Amino acid sequence: MMRVVLPAHLRTLSGAGSEIEMEIDPPVTLQSALDALEARYPMLRGTIRDPHTRQRRPFLRFFACEEDISHQGLEEPLPDAVSSGAEPLLIIGAVAGG
Amino acid sequence: MSKVRLLVGTRKGAFLLTSDGKRKRWKVDGPFFSGWEIYHLKGSPADPNRLYASQSSGWFGQIIQRSQDGGQSWEPAGNQFAYDGVPGTHQWYDGTPHPWEFKRVWHLEPSLTDPETVYAGVEDAALFRSTDGAKSWQELSGLRGHGSGPHWQPGAGGMCLHSILLDPGDPQRIFIAISSAGAFRTTDGGQTWQPINRGLRSAHIPDPDAEVGHCVHHIAMHKTRPGTLFMQKHWDVMRSDDAGDSWQEISGELPSDFGFAIDVHAHEPETIYVVPIKSDSEHFPPDGKLRVYRKRGQEGWEALTKGLPQKNCYVNVLRDAMAVDSLDDCGIYFGTTGGQVYGSADAGDSWSPIVRDLPAVLSVEVQTLP
């Protein structure tokens, strides 16, 4: 059971709690995690990935196991600690703006 | 007794301001969608409880929100705005080709007759329509593809389609305006479009009276006279009496003919309002005096100042931030980048602030409710 933590604005938009638990068939990747997240919360489509390019929005990052994994391939397996739920996948909004 | 509801979009959320027909005491609800930019909200003329809102953010992109109970509750609707076909390019600021990229929805215009149908004016400039209550969107690509699209260029605020006027007498006729391409008209429900910019002169483009390239800031019409259009251009206030085929300047003796907002009195189709702003680059009222100017028919411009700050005022009033109600007397409202929303219950003769300290106001719409 993997765990995902959303930025505050997306928690409000989706109505999800502080942490989302999702069962995903292995191997768990960023692609499969984001697909599962958007399937459960359709209002998040387009908010994390650009709806046309499917690329990560530039002011968002993906952190896991104290590493910035934003630039790892979407199909690359996530660390075992994330896919098992020992550590959450953190979706982080840039601390910026006025 | 009638009731008035203002829909106010700001840099950091939406607010609903309600009053009875006297328009003396106001209730303020919000912020809704706090922290997000709300470029525009508008209610359906066919079902006043159906509201649409454009919610966007530099972090999370575009959301469209919909309410079916007059704004008490909201639900996210569709946010997939895909250009039709291969989008191609327009001109970038430096004149080089630049791919069309969706950025945000500037304006939502619900159908006059069907609550499920709503139009969206977007940046990069294009017109979309939904017929299922904003769940899905289709581009009316005849506008972008009519021929001049590759020559359009963004204004300083982006290449936005910001004005949508639906003709109450002819559902096939729609007027739109784009910064900085100009005004356009369709007479077949959005399939084909033609530029309607003859008579506009813009000294800041190479050919001052070119067919396209004019920085139109806003256009307005009175519902009983859809052939008469009023325009606040980057410079110049303009009027057309032939549905945009030709334009004449009516700036007259305004202290500045630059501005963004323009609107028409609800019961006097010949009476219009603008808020002169100093430019280029200052974008605040001349002499620090916030003045609405009213023009009745052939008469000259009249400064409306009672109740508005007449010194040390350096706010702006943006293009979608003025609206009129349809009560007697006509109420008129506008919001400022300083977070004030001013209202007049006597057609502009006197004003008072409804709220003073909102985030910067991007848009103001009004619903007159039974």
Protein model, in words:
The complex is a heterodimer of chains A (98) and B (370). Chain A has helices at residues 8-14, 30-40, 80-83, and strands spanning 2-5, 20-22, 60-64, 67-68, 89-93. Chain A is of the alpha+beta class and 98 residues long. Chain A has a single domain, classed as Ubiquitin-like (UB roll). Chain A is globular and about 35 Å long. Chain B is mostly beta strands. In chain B, a hairpin with a 2-residue loop joins β18 (216-222) and β19. The mean pLDDT of chain B is 96. The chains are: A alpha+beta (98), B mainly beta (370). Chains A and B meet through α1 of A and β6 of B.
Mean pLDDT over all positions of chain B? 96
Structural class of chain A: alpha+beta
* Largest sheet data of chain A: 5 strands, mixed
Could you name the ranges of chain B where pLDDT drops below 50 across 5 or more consecutive residues?
none
Strand line-up across the major sheet of chain A:
2-1-5-3-4
Order of helices and strands of chain B: EEEEEEEEEEEEEEEEEEEEEEEEEEEEEE
CATH class division of chain A: Alpha Beta
What ranges of chain A have pLDDT less than 50 throughout 5 or more consecutive residues? none
Based on CA atoms alone, the radius of gyration of chain A comes out at: 12 Å
Give the N-to-C terminal Cα separation of chain A.
37 Å
Order of strands in the sheet with most strands of chain B? 3-2-1-30
Shape of chain B: globular
The topology string of helices and strands of chain A comes to: EHEHEEHE
> β content of chain B, as a range?
35-45%
- Assembly status: heterodimer
List keywords for this structure.
heterodimer; A: 98 residues; alpha+beta; Ubiquitin-like (UB roll); 3 helices; 22% helix; B: mainly beta; four-stranded antiparallel beta sheet; globular
How is the topology of this model organized?
The complex is a heterodimer of chains A (98) and B (370).
Chain A: E1 2-5, H1 8-14, E2 20-22, H2 30-40, E3 60-64, E4 67-68, H3 80-83, E5 89-93
Parallel strand pairs in A: 1-5
Antiparallel strand pairs in A: 1-2, 3-4, 3-5
Chain B: E1 3-10, E2 13-20, E3 27-32, E4 37-43, E5 51-57, E6 61-67, E7 75-76, E8 89-91, E9 97-99, E10 104-110, E11 118-123, E12 126-130, E13 138-139, E14 160-166, E15 174-179, E16 182-186, E17 194-195, E18 216-222, E19 225-233, E20 237-240, E21 248-249, E22 262-264, E23 271-274, E24 292-296, E25 301-304, E26 322-324, E27 332-335, E28 341-344, E29 352-355, E30 361-369
Antiparallel strand pairs in B: 1-2, 1-30, 2-3, 4-5, 5-6, 6-7, 8-9, 10-11, 11-12, 12-13, 14-15, 15-16, 16-17, 18-19, 19-20, 20-21, 22-23, 23-24, 24-25, 26-27, 27-28, 28-29
